[in-house]
Amino acid sequence: MRMSAHLVAPDAAPAEAAAFERVHVQVGGHRIGRDTFTVIAGPCSVRCFDQTLRVAKAVEQAGATMLRGGAYKPRTDPRSFQGLAELGLAMLLDAKAATGLMIVTELLDVRDLELVLTVADIVQVGARNMQNTALLRELGRAGCPVLLKRGFAATIDETIGAAEYIRCEGNHDVILCERGIRTFESRYRFSLDLTAVPIMQERSGLPVLVDPSHAPGRRDLVLRLSKAAAAVGADGLIVEVDESPDQALSDGPQQLRSDTFADYMREVRRVAHGEGRAL
Ligand code: PEP
Ligand code: MN
User: Which of 206, 269, 259 lies closest to 237, judged by CA?
Assistant: First the structure.
């Protein structure tokens, strides 16, 4: 059988679909995307009122845009610390009232949505839940800003597909986050895929943040990855900071110390400003 010419793979690459126009997400008085550089900082998990408040004050004074902190933790071992749930949310609310910082916190279970929304300005969907389609649809209906973290075995298209679950319910306030994917490399926790940042921006139009903490799993590499993220055009960072990380109940080794956070911010600000971003 003769093959017709058009079935033979052409040498030229197929035309790329048009890139999406970049949008921003407005959260309270803050705009995420395009011209700004957003820094969301705070502990992996909250564990007491006083400490949460002191960390919140430290990150606020250093110029962070929002406070992060987990009250519901997706852990590998079901017997390990799972977060303080409602009590943890109360700690975040307390810190929010004292500092005025907006709050980013993870929702694990759709049954806790109403409660989480009493505190969260942005609801975080963790890497392990990226394709929990029931959760995504419910967040789509809730209409709140959502920080959707890329699953550690998810492709770029799967990540954008997950964002579509939220968007097709009418909620367009979705922010993507690259936090490292699983590769053959075992010297560190995850491979931070910085190539994905501009590609996710152009393929979705959405703001893309980078989490520089979970990939290295070591605090001494966090600043370098943060500056690399700013240089590659990320719209901001979500970074783990604690007062005494050695006593943290989750992710201690990768958390920055709050008493060094102002120095960290100075370095990050320099690169973000160099990229024309306001911070
Ligand atoms: C976290 O932000 O603390 C977290 C659990 O992140 P991830 O879902 O990316 O592992
Ligand atoms: Mn963590």
Answer: 269
Q: What is the DSSP string of 73-137?
A: ---SSTTS----HHHHHHHHHHHHHHH--EEEEE---GGGHHHHHTT-SEEEE-GGGTT-HHHHH
DSSP, collapsed to helix, strand or coil, labels residue 200 as helix
Q: What is the mean pLDDT of the chain?
A: 94
230 within 8 A of 268, measured Cβ to Cβ: yes
CA pair distance 206, 182, nearest whole angstrom? 23
Tell me the ligand closest to 124's alpha carbon: 1
Taking only the tens place, the pLDDT of each residue in 107-122 is 999 999 999 999 999 9
Residue with tokens 């959260």: 27
Per DSSP, the three-state class of 274 is helix
How far does residue 136's CA lie from ligand 1's centre (Å)?
A: 16
Residues 46-102 pLDDT 10s: 999 999 999 999 999 999 999 999 999 999 999 999 999 999 999 999 999 999 999
Sign of CA dihedral 28, 70, 236, 159: negative
Question: Buried b vs exposed e over 200-223: b needs ≥16 C-beta within 10 Å?
Answer: bbebbbbbbbbbbbbbbbebebbb
Q: Strand 122-125 vs strand 146-149: parallel, antiparallel, or unpaired? A: parallel
Half-sphere exposure of 188 (CA within 13 A, CB side): 19
Decide whether any atom of ligand 1 lies within 6 Å of the 55 Cβ: no
With beta carbons less than 8 A apart as the criterion, state whether 215 and 222 touch: no
Neighbours of ion ligand 2 (CB under 5 A): 44, 251
Task: State the pLDDT at residue 20.
Answer: 86
Position with higher pLDDT, 106 vs 13: 106
The secondary structure of residue 48, as a DSSP letter, is -
